[in-house]
Automatic annotation (TrEMBL):
Coiled coil stretches, renumbered: none
Lineage per the UniProt record: Bacteria, Pseudomonadati, Pseudomonadota, Alphaproteobacteria, Hyphomicrobiales
Alphabetical list of Gene3D superfamilies matching this protein: 3.90.1010.10
Residue span, Fe-S metabolism associated domain: 8-131
Protein name listed in UniProt: Cysteine desulfuration protein SufE
PANTHER family (alphabetical): SUFE-LIKE PROTEIN 2, CHLOROPLASTIC, SULFUR ACCEPTOR PROTEIN CSDE
Family: Belongs to the SufE family.
The species this protein was found in: Afifella marina DSM 2698
Amino acid sequence: MSIESIIDDFAFLDEWEDRYRYVIELGRALPEMPDEERTEATKVRGCASQVWLVSEDAVKDGEAVLIFRGDSDAHIVRGLIAIVLALYSGTTPEEILKTDAEAVFARMGLREHLTAQRSNGLSAMLQRIRRDAESRLAQ
């Protein structure tokens, strides 16, 4: 699912209760992460819930892109991961670094409806993705 589709769906839902349910549904649609990828190396620091994030190199339309997979032990966090993956997975490291995730989240009104812990965890995921993109550019 694209980030624009998610934003459109969010706009269609009037109540935050419905939006939370939608975020949880997005998380349920995430593919399961194999246990062997749930390691200390893939764990995202700064999240209250357990969060794992894996990035791998791929080629899309002749360009080097990063593909991300993620998982969490919390339903709402899995949904947040799905939103982050829709925003970043399959894009180039340069695109990742240029993308203003906060502007996207502001369009959705997402940050203002998250607890401080979940907001911090979301920031930690974004920082990890940016570090992965910076690392690929430095190679």
